[in-house]
Amino acid sequence: MLDKLNELTESHGELKTGHGLVSGVIALSLGILCFLGVLAFHFPEYLTTPQLRKSYDVELIRKVMFAALVIAGGISLVNILFNRARWLSAFAFLLVALTAFLGGHKVEVDPNFPDHTPYIGLDWFILDLLGSSLIFIFVEKLFALRKDQPVFRAEWQTDFHHFIVNHMVVGFVLLATNLMVHKLFGWAGTDGIRGWVQGLNFWLALFLIVLVADLVQYWTHRAYHEVPLLWRLHAVHHSVKSMDWLAGSRQHILELLITRTLVLAPIYVLGFSKEVIDAYIVIVGFQAVFNHANVSVRLGPLRYVIVTPNFHHWHHSQDQEALDRNYAAHFAFLDYLFGTAVKADREWPRSYGVLGDYVPNGFVKQFQFPFTWKG
Prior knowledge:
The protein is mostly helical. It is built from 17 helices and no strands.
């Protein structure tokens, strides 16, 4: 069973329908999330994010977990009874049973523990995966750009590995980023500037934080393309050949750390309020997923102002006119301002990926790629 599961996770082809693999993977994914959820219930001080645990409704999460257990268990039993990928469904059912044995959705949570306990953001990973997949897969099916692209398309395993690693270490990344920002840029903040920024109207401050962050993102992103040493890292992100909600997760962890440090630096120096930063994080999270999604959205004239899936799909294109173009993450007008916007006679690019396809498949090989590439 474990050998077959390992073979599935290490493969790179799309999942074929009609054999119980697709439903089995769904059941297994829900089973894993439920098992991780019950662990978070038992050890909240070590496995949950302090900022998140103060804001979400635990009773609602219990109901979601119960529904996920029922769905995962039901799918698993049907597949086992009808001999459809029994090994996969048996593993999923085992996780459901283990979750139930550990208390499932009924585990009582003791809120009395120190706030500064070192933690792994397991709750962030669970909520982000569940929320992103439910919302964006639904949106992709309603407004699909490439209607024949399956949910479990080729190389989804590689991107899912990136998703897991980058989200599981998000607590460490944020901690390391904050330390680096304070150490490298703490001297630059002044009370006068921070006072002015904190006195701004919420919406004006939100526009300013997105603009400042995107200006840094633009030039950082451009450097990843124009500096060969940095391209070694960024090529991993560009190696994805199918655009969907999961594609944006393919990012080398060093690039993630560097970019977040540089983007957070001016935000820290300017002293934006917590409410503005929280709103900015929501915008960043949404656009990072949506702009990679397999959706046919252009927004008319607004596409010259705001980055849309159409705008960012061109950035990932192998088409000659799109190479090293469309760097902005939020405001498309920055690329028009700096002369790096794509000019094409077609609405959408033909193909995606690194020109030459020299980045290997698989998470481990892609992690090693910047240090081993001879190009």
